[in-house]
Amino acid sequence: MKSVFGEAYTAEDDHIHAYQANRPDQSVKSAGEVHRAAPATSRRKMLGMAGALGATVAGLGMIDAKPASARTVGVSTSRLLGGSHRIVDMSHTWGEDFPVFRPFVEPPKFEQVASVEKEGYNTLMITMDEHSGTHMDGPKHFDNGQLATDEIPAENLIAPLVVVRIADRAQKDLDALLTYDDLRTWESRHGRIPDGAVVAMDSGWSARINDPARIFNRDAADKPHFPGIGWDAAEFLESRRNIVGVAADSPSLDSGANNYLDPRAHKILLTTGHYGIEWTANVDKLPESGAVTVIGLMKHKGGFAGPVRMFGLY
């Protein structure tokens, strides 16, 4: 029997369907199974655009020092990228008032320890959890045998971007999940998920960033409610598609309900060498297919996670 995009169903598809019930009796893949980087040949079209983005970044670094307002209008992305392109900032600005997912994360602390008035320069001392602001959960977050964030290959941080929209459903269901069927529907419209891709959930949650109560939606038992990646979708992406990572515009890869009880989307993806980005911004401003993401990751030794500056380019 054929799927909607022409791929034959197998017994493994039946196994994946079992995850749609999010049943706790299903087991995940071995923690020792390491995800392979996507072949270079799958990246040729994507790297043409991403390489041009590198030229943009290099170009920005060569601009003479001027007031920020002057610098921001001094570079034409169309000229540097060759054609008309847009760059979307997929990271939130974060500080001491940025929402944190307690009890797992504590708020950061910012202290100015030098100023232009006293020392002649400005410096902040920042004390923070790795999971602050828009950040990456690295493979080692759930498995000591996997890569630390500083060991993730640089080529896995430039990737085709797949955007799957569930915002309409999330408006009605606070515990909405990105599902296997959502991925199949995406592929029926756009073709097979590209090798080496990052799959991003657009649940509309980033619009709630300045209203923590509406982000977490804690009930009388203090249980949070927000969207996440379903276990069936995670299993499909891990076992049937050659992606490098996933991204969620909510506080966690797992939904609020699952995160407390069984964060299995994390376990399925991270223990097999993938990474996950949480708290992404502006995903709704990106096309469902055809974009490239570039992830600037804090490179601290032995990291389990780390803040990112993430961009979408199309």
Task: Write structural notes for this entry.
The chain contains ten helices and twelve strands. It starts with 10 loop residues before the first helix and ends with a strand. By secondary structure, the protein is α/β, with parallel strands linked by helices. A seven-stranded mixed beta barrel has the order 4-10-9-7-5-11-12.
State the distance separating the first and last CA atoms. 36 Å
How many strands, what sense, and barrel or not for the largest sheet? Answer: 7 strands, mixed, barrel
Main-sheet strand order equals 4-10-9-7-5-11-12
Rg from alpha-carbon coordinates: 20 Å
Give the structural class: alpha/beta
Overall pLDDT, averaged? 83
Strand content: 15-25%
Give the strand tally: 12
Outline the low-pLDDT stretches. 1-6, 19-43, 54-74
The general outline is globular
Write the SSE topology:
Elements lengths: L10 H9 L24 H18 L6 H4 L5 H5 L5 E3 L19 E6 L8 E5 L7 E3 L20 E8 L1 H6 L4 E2 L1 H11 L7 E5 L9 H5 L11 E2 L1 H10 L4 E4 L7 H6 L2 H7 L4 E4 L12 E7 L7 E9 L1
Parallel strand pairs: 5-7, 6-8, 7-9, 9-10
Antiparallel strand pairs: 1-12, 2-3, 4-10, 4-12, 5-11, 11-12
Helix pairs in contact: 1-8, 6-8, 8-10
